[in-house]
Write a structure and sequence with these properties.
Helix content is 51%, strand content 11%. By secondary structure, it is of the alpha/beta class. It has two domains: 10-178, Rossmann fold; 182-367, Dehydroquinate synthase-like, alpha domain. The strands form two sheets. A six-stranded parallel beta sheet has the order 1-8-5-4-2-3, with helices on both faces. Strands 6-7 form a two-stranded antiparallel ribbon. The radius of gyration is 20 Å and the shape is globular. It starts with 9 loop residues before the first strand and ends in a 14-residue tail after the last helix. The structure holds nicotinamide-adenine-dinucleotide. Nicotinamide-adenine-dinucleotide binds at residues 37, 39, 43, 68-69, 94-98, 100, 137-138, 140-143, 146, 148-150, 178-179, 181-182, 186, 190, 193, 276-277.
Length: 375
């Protein structure tokens, strides 16, 4: 098997790397569109970005109307700004929602069409996208280093997972200082999202040696630091490890794929408006239990990294201990279950067939160690 690793051309990582945004942007263009949200504006991150760009001789305009779990509407609005202002470089500043919108705009900006055209590779971006610098403010999605964008098609109520080389950002700037302001519930949800990426990348049928080492290192960092990052929001050492892990997990899953958790998580997100990290966290232990018989050896590899007392235990027992640890972690981080999120059971059951169909159609479940049947 030939292993392929595709990542952004440039990655700047470390405390205060955001200060380099002007210098990096000036290498790619002279008029930037900043795609971000109102929270980033309130935190003054947008203003600081514009200031750093001006210092480097780059002019900028902004589109700030993005909401969590972005829809195609935001993509088209931001695209209009890109065109009207003749911008030649894009900055996606914020959580995965801002970065994913920026990726879609970057590809549509040069290749045209609607974003749903690119679903399931019906249309492939042939021209290089408008150069994009992705700057995450959450430690979770890893979108800064993936060739994936997740956009909801409002008309069809489908959360589209679109994967093509064209969606890989030209550069990523990963500054853990930007995540200090993250509220505890966002730190919890995004941290479990990164953990899910790393675990699914390691269990994926398409995993390879590069992705294995990225995934295992990411899991080690997350299990070492997620509790501190959650309980002590100002703990920069813990935040630093979480940002690094999210980046590594993004690189791992972008090249190895995600599996059943993500396949099922997207329809739940689209139909019941559950944030991505939360729906992943609701599903992760259950899906691992379902898959256990076909992946206990790989789960035991993970367990051996994070536990120091596995001597004498069978691989099955270590795998079960890992699943129990993830369940305990979700409780400690106050991750709600479906009921806790306010989803009405009858409504959920009525939507089961559509959710199963959408999950299987996404392709992700096919990479799971145990592949589910259609109902
Ligand atoms: P998000 O971008 O939706 O942000 C959640 C909330 O947190 C928003 O209100 C935002 O303003 C706020 N926020 C973000 N950073 C903050 C900070 N530093 N301080 C204070 N508030 C902050 O959340 P997310 O989990 O980063 O992204 C979720 C989206 O990413 C989903 O649509 C999901 O499907 C997608 N996703 C994409 C990929 C990919 O590879 N492209 C991978 C996983 C998930």
């Amino acid at each position: 098997m030939v292993s392929v690793l595709q990542i952004p051309r440039t990655i700047l990582y470390g405390q205060h790397s955001f200060q380099k945004v002007g210098e990096e942007t000036s290498k790619l263009g002279n008029k930037a569109l900043i795609i971000s949200d109102r929270m980033m504006e309130k935190l003054m991150y947008v203003e600081e970005c514009q200031h750093l760009l001006t210092q480097a001789g780059v002019s900028s305009v902004k589109y700030l109307d993005i909401d969590s779990e972005p829809t195609d509407t935001f993509v088209y609005e931001a695209l209009d700004t890109l065109k009207a202002e003749s911008c030649n470089v894009i900055i996606g500043l914020g959580g995965g929602s801002c970065i994913d919108t920026a990726k879609a705009v970057a590809v549509l900006g040069t290749n045209g069409g609607s974003i749903s055209d690119y679903m399931n590779s019906r249309k492939i971006a042939q021209k290089s996208a408008v150069p994009l610098i992705a700057i995450p403010t959450t430690a979770g999605t890893g979108s800064e280093a993936t060739d994936v964008t997740v956009i909801t098609d409002i008309a069809l109520d489908i959360k589209m997972m679109i994967k093509q080389p064209g969606f890989m950002p030209a550069a990523a700037i990963v500054d853990p200082v930007l995540t200090i302001s993250s509220p505890k519930n966002i730190t919890a949800a995004t941290g479990i999202d990164a953990l899910t990426h790393a675990i699914e990348a390691y269990l994926s049928r398409r995993a390879h040696p590069f992705t294995d080492s990225l995934a295992l290192t990411a899991i080690g960092h997350i299990m070492e630091s997620i509790r501190d990052a959650y309980h002590q929001p100002q703990n920069i050492k813990a935040k630093e490890k979480m940002s690094l892990a999210a980046l590594q997990a993004g690189m791992a899953f972008s090249n190895a794929s995600v599996c059943l958790v993500h396949g099922m998580s997207r329809p739940i997100g689209a139909l019941f408006h559950v944030p991505h990290g939360i729906s992943n966290a609701m599903l992760l232990p259950v899906v691992l239990e379902y898959s256990l018989e076909d992946c206990y050896e790989r789960l035991a590899d993970i367990g051996n990294i994070i536990f120091h007392d596995t001597q004498g235990l069978t691989k099955q027992a270590i795998a079960q201990k890992l699943i129990d640890e993830i369940k305990a972690l979700c409780v400690e981080l106050s991750i709600p279950n479906l009921k806790g999120w306010g989803i009405i059971e009858d409504l959920f059951l009525q939507s089961l067939k559509k959710m199963a169909r959408d999950a299987l159609a996404s392709g992700s479940p096919g990479n799971n160690p145990k592949v589910p049947d259609e109902i």
